[in-house]
């Protein structure tokens, strides 16, 4: 019997399990259908752009907490997970995403520069050629997270705090109730509550308990790039 079962050991599920354990929850089980840190999920790969240059104010403010949490994890794990490269967000002049990003960063007091495409072409003559009338936001403090390394560090720290990670356990059924039963291809587990962090597999898993998630692919009219070498 567990206090909480987290389904899916991508970055979302691993961070949930890690933070539950860090917050003092005893008896956390993290279940993963493939091997831990496999290369079929959204969280695999070398790097992820990490920035506060977002359109939505909530994300801008949340990222300030996230930077601190990544830095704490680096200290706990004794490794480097983040590299400051600076990030540029750019789009057509008047692009609503870029304009709103500038507004949100101003409200949240995040240092940034706003430049035209022409100014960027002058500043980076060898690296960039974008239309002169484009609008660009530069956040010098942004950078990249080493994605696979971050995932591994999160899972290792979770286990060091007493959490259990079982990989190659595919959840095939969730039976709701006061005590939740989670059925896998290798046996069943019970818990007081369950967190589903199954990424793109979530709609299939959730529909088995009558929850039908809308699954939308977002459309962006902007571009992103790191401005210093990775
Ligand atoms: C190509 C690409 C580039 C990206 N670039 C960026 C970027 O630069 N910056 C950024 O912030 N974000 C970026 N993202 C988004 C970010 O990577 C994702 O939002 C994040 O990795 C999602 O993590 P997740 O844990 O929700 O999903 P996943 O990593 O997919 O994890 C879900 C896990 O659940 C497991 N699972 C599913 N079903 C079951 C089951 N039935 N039983 C047991 N386990 C199960 C899966 O095997 C998987 O391991 C990018 C995404 C992609 C794909």
TrEMBL record:
Gene3D superfamilies: D-Amino Acid Oxidase, subunit A, domain 2 (3.30.9.10), FAD/NAD(P)-binding domain (3.50.50.60). InterPro entries: FAD-dep_OxRdtase, FAD/NAD-bd_sf, MTOX. GO terms for biological process: L-lysine catabolic process to acetyl-CoA via L-pipecolate. Its cofactor is FAD. One of its GO terms (cellular component) is peroxisome. Transmembrane segments: none annotated. GO terms for molecular function: flavin adenine dinucleotide binding; L-pipecolate oxidase activity; sarcosine oxidase activity. Keywords: FAD, Flavoprotein, Oxidoreductase. Belongs to the MSOX/MTOX family. This is Peroxisomal sarcosine oxidase. Residues 4-218 form the FAD dependent oxidoreductase domain. PANTHER family: PEROXISOMAL SARCOSINE OXIDASE.
């Amino acid at each position: 019997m567990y206090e909480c079962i987290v389904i899916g050991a991508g970055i979302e599920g691993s961070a949930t399990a890690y933070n539950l354990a860090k917050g003092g929850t005893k008896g956390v089980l993290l279940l993963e259908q493939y091997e831990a840190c496999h290369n079929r999920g959204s969280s695999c790969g070398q790097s992820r752009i990490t920035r506060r240059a977002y359109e939505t104010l909530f994300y801008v403010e949340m990222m300030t907490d996230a930077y601190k949490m990544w830095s704490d994890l680096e200290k706990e794990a004794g490794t480097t997970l983040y590299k400051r490269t600076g990030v540029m967000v750019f789009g057509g002049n008047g692009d609503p995403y870029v304009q709103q990003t500038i507004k949100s960063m101003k409200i949240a007091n995040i240092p940034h520069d706003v430049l035209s495409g022409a100014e960027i072409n002058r500043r980076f003559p060898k690296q960039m050629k974008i239309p002169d009338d484009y609008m660009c936001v530069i956040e010098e403090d942004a950078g990249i997270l080493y994605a696979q390394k971050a995932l591994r560090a999160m899972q290792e720290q979770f286990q060091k705090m007493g959490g259990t990670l079982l990989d190659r356990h595919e959840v095939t059924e969730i039976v709701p109730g006061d005590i939740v039963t989670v059925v896998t291809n290798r046996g069943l587990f019970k818990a007081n509550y369950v967190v589903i962090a199954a990424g793109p597999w979530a709609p299939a898993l959730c529909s088995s308990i009558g929850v039908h998630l809308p699954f939308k692919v977002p459309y962006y009219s902007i571009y992103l790039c790191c401005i210093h070498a990775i």
